[in-house]
Amino acid sequence: MNKKYIMIGCAALAAAAAAGAYFFHASQMRLDEPVFLTHYIESTQCAAGRSIMLNYITDKNDNRSVFSVSFPECPELSFDVYESDRAYHRYHKTRQIYIQSRLDAETPLEPTAVTKVHIEFSDGTGGDFDIGYILAENIPASGNRLVQTQSSGADNSGGSTETKLVFDDCTLTDINSVLDENCGAAVDIKINGGAAAIPLELHKDEAVTFDAGIIVSEPYAYNVYSLDKTLVFEDANGNIHNEYLTNIRYAPEFTEKGILDFLRERGRIS
Fold first, then answer.
1. Which residues are registered as beta bridge partners of 130?
2. Which of 147, 164, 169, 184 could be bridged to 222 by S-S, CB 3.0 to 4.6 A?
3. Cα 189 to Cα 191: distance, rounded to the nearest angstrom
């Protein structure tokens, strides 16, 4: 047999073997349903116009869009939905769902923990998906406030700053949050550029600046996107007032290895 034809045949066999290996591996990587990142979101103000974001990983060939989003554990909340592709990878793609609350600003909502989201897709399919932990509540604005935000800024790496003006003498007694020590993320708060020494006495017409940074130990499993840190104040009469830092957010950067590690951890691929 002509040497040229032997070489062509060997090349064709090698190409077929490589293609077969790729398609076999791709079949092992296939996702029949999306897998949501575990979210830790504290959405204190759920009034109309407030939005949060959910990240999920799906199969590269999944072209369904999200038609509606609801939380079975909190049916009082309804949302407008905006979705976007974030990035394409070898076998998967990551997508974002932005959901904007329709809840009336004057309607109170007691603190409600939600761990599942119900998704309806454009092709008529749907289901409930594990999303970790979201604390949702709505507190109508109070006329009796001790502080008010003067300025704020944030980035998606978890860095934020917020300056508040103090209306009356008071004491900052605590800073709380939904995050726990096992969630894969923590928030470091500095006050006026230094350590957050609590309790802290504050005086009328004083400006106090809170700088926050997110420390993430497992960036692909957890998505701390929006976090309303609760600031607890006590006035001169012993009354307790809550205010919030509402611009702390972290959106993870996805890599191929990070996605595969996350899906293996969730038992979705081998």
1. 116
2. 184
3. 7
